[in-house]
Amino acid sequence: xxxxxxxxxxxxxxxxxxxxxxxxxxxxxxxxxxxxxxxxxxxxxxxxxxxxxxxxxxxxxxxxxxxxxxxxxxxxxxxxxxxxxxxxxxxxxxxxxxxxxxxxxxxxxxxxxxxxxxxxxxxxxxxxxxxxxxxxxxxxxxxxxxxxxxxxxxxxxxxxxxxxxxxxxxxxxxxxxxxxxxxxxxxxxxxxxxxxxxxxxxxxxxxxxxxxxxxxxxxxxxxxxxxxxxxxxxxxxxxxxxxxxxxxxxxxxxxxxxxxxxxxxxxxxxxxxxxxxxxxxxxxxxxxxxxxxxxxxxxxxxxxxxxxxxxxxxxxxxxxxxxxxxxxx
Length: 329
Known about the structure:
Blueprint: H1 2-10, E1 19-24, E2 36-43, H2 46-58, E3 63-66, E4 72-74, E5 79-86, E6 91-95, E7 99-105, H3 110-119, H4 135-140, E8 144-145, E9 148-149, E10 154-161, E11 191-195, E12 213-223, H5 227-244, H6 263-269, E13 276-277, E14 280-282, E15 290-292, H7 298-316, E16 325-327
Parallel strand pairs: 2-5, 3-5, 4-16
Antiparallel strand pairs: 1-2, 6-7, 7-12, 8-9, 10-11, 10-12, 13-14, 14-15
């Protein structure tokens, strides 16, 4: 089987314990739905990441990058090619006189970083302490909450620039693909650094969602604070989340906030709170969330998304946009 041959090549740099064939994406997404990835690899450093991409190029396989899977929906037929899960776990704190410069690997979970900053008396990151994602994903989508966003604290971000697209394959012919020496041929020259302005931050968006950049690490500039005050703010935000947000599997806010309207309020006013298709439901607790009640398929969620968009437009004339990214076949 060609997939075994590909995995064997991956093991030249990546330990076999972090390479998976026909791996269910349900394990890697907060929605707990989705089909299999042809191959999934967990990478711990840039060398491993580059190797995985080079192997994908050699076999003309598409590459999909994921972090904590908290803002994605994987379709029921899964993802073809190689899924690369970024697990860079670097945290370096440079305490200067008036502020701290914190360098964070793309795979670091926001909750872990928030705790580390609390332990060091560093403030300014409390807003992200309850977001269930990684730094890479947070930078990519300019994550935010309670009036703050990543753009407010990011100095610069190191990323890997891919020069070419991979030729996509059909999910059922991975064993028929041909080997090629064409591709990105990436090396250290492909690693670039973007300052805050170059990252083009805007509401739930950045340059990383429009260009072929893979976030490697980012630098944050944060002020010092009183540990008790930082902890109190984190606890306050945590309490607000628990009171307002559902505890069933979801990908956070399903839809973006409108320029002149609150999307969840519109959905609620359209009488859709609690509306269900299959195992997918508009949360009865917060209309901005679609949740998996236990046996949802990705198609159930997609059908519910399209239904909500249709009803809201028909009743209000407003077009609502998806915040969650849909991946796969």
